[in-house]
Amino acid sequence: MKKHIIFYFGIALMLSGCIENVSPWEKETLAKPTMKVGGTNSLAKKFEEHMYYSKEASKGGSGVAGGGCGCN
Amino acid sequence: MQLKISLAAATLLSALCVQADDYVSFEYLQYDENKNRTSVSAPSLIINKDFGVDYTLNFSIVADAVSGASETYYDASSGASAIHSRGTNVSQNDVKYGNVEYDDNRVAGSLALTTRFDNRDELTVGLNRSNESDFYSTELSGEYMHYLDESKNQSVSFGLSYMANQILVQCSATGTGSCDTLSGGSEEETADTISTQVSFHQVLDSTSFTEAALFYMQEDGYLTNPYLNVVRDYNSGTAKIVGENRPDSRSIYGLSLKYAKAINDEFTTQASYRFYNDDWGINSHTIDTDLYYEPSSDWLIKVGLRYYTQSEADFFKFEKDYFTNQTYASSDLRLSNFDAVTYKSYVEYKFSDDFSYNISANFYDQSTDLSATYFMTGFKYKF
Fold first, then answer.
1. CB crowding A37-56: b at 16 or more within 10 Å, else e
2. Tell me, what CATH number does B299's domain have?
3. Which residues of chain B from 23 to 62 reach within 8 Å of chain A, CB to CB?
4. Residues of chain A with C-beta less than 8 angstroms from the C-beta of B252
5. Is B301 contained in some domain?
6. Would B196 be classed as within a structural domain?
7. Does residue B17 lie in a domain region?
8. pTM of the predicted model, to two decimals?
9. How many domains does chain B divide into?
10. Prediction ipTM score
11. What is the pLDDT along chain A (72 residues), one digit of tens a residue?
12. Which of B137, B148, B278, B378 has the fewest Cβ atoms within 10 Å of its own Cβ atom?
């Protein structure tokens, strides 16, 4: 756990040198559908997450709402 | 003074230009695994409706028709199902591993309401419900997003959810307690999950952002897969095929990092990494990358690659001659040490500003010998 926190802290430090203040009227590109977290198609994303949930042992990291399944 | 008025006018103009994100979207999924294992046909629908600029309601529903087979150990000499033949002595030659057929239907729905406050912070509350013939799940969730600066380039989100599951477990020949061992009845088990997540979002410049999240989950209750078997006492000469048994709690934590960058007007890339750890002994790493290409305003093409690797659970062994009297035992390959790669492709075409059609083809390949293809097609209509 500790080494992962150090890893992320290191990345945050590196990124802090790259941060620019972006004004609201400069956010046209950031508002594009392709820049949306999770992609342009939320249903397709739900399908994929459900598949991984049922075929792999890991879960989490994509928000707290997910829903469950028996997943035989 | 003139500059201030111009800035205020520009801000006002951008606010007025905010369009409602009202749409209905339909997708159909066809998922097929190799070796005649699981197939899933699943139509789904999502409706998103803005009420002014302060409220958004999102509703989705999916109906899965699942058929095929799960792989597990079973008694080849018994005419009974893999579950009802449990517990009896089996000769070594009759212990087989293979497909045990099943079919199921699932209907799952979700409803989420997002409220935006005067400072544009957001609160989203949601309800999920999933019904199968032997599994019922209800989840309540809430997430609060708070902007940390005036330009809204930094935000932090706190999420919390509670999920309650009911599982109907078919009685086996060695059923216990109130389980009716003769009629093939079932008894009800329960499991709960509490999930929390804290995430930090940072705009890096006018074409990129990053997001880091820390998540923790606690599962308690019946976490065993009621359909999967293990072999015990194989070397004694008369093996026993019994249901697997997992611990009744699991603590999970993980970290994730996302990055998105618009390279130019045509190309956008998104990349993410997730680290996962639980107290069953499983660690995993996931790297997911997508590249979007927009050759014109009508076309969107996406290709993606996902790599996943996990270590095995402490109580997992696939070998049929391993388990004797261990409390926890599972031969479910989903708890094994494996890698997986997903190859993704997606094409979207806009017939008009309001109507678009999409199709995608994907291939999932696990080192456990499981592979699957899944195709999706659908449309989105903005109203």
1. ebbbbbbbebbbbbbbbebb
2. 2.40.160.40
3. 25, 27, 29, 31, 38, 42, 44, 46, 60, 62
4. 59-60
5. yes
6. yes
7. no
8. 0.90
9. 1
10. 0.89
11. 666 666 666 666 566 667 888 999 999 999 999 999 888 998 999 899 999 999 999 999 888 877 677 665
12. B148
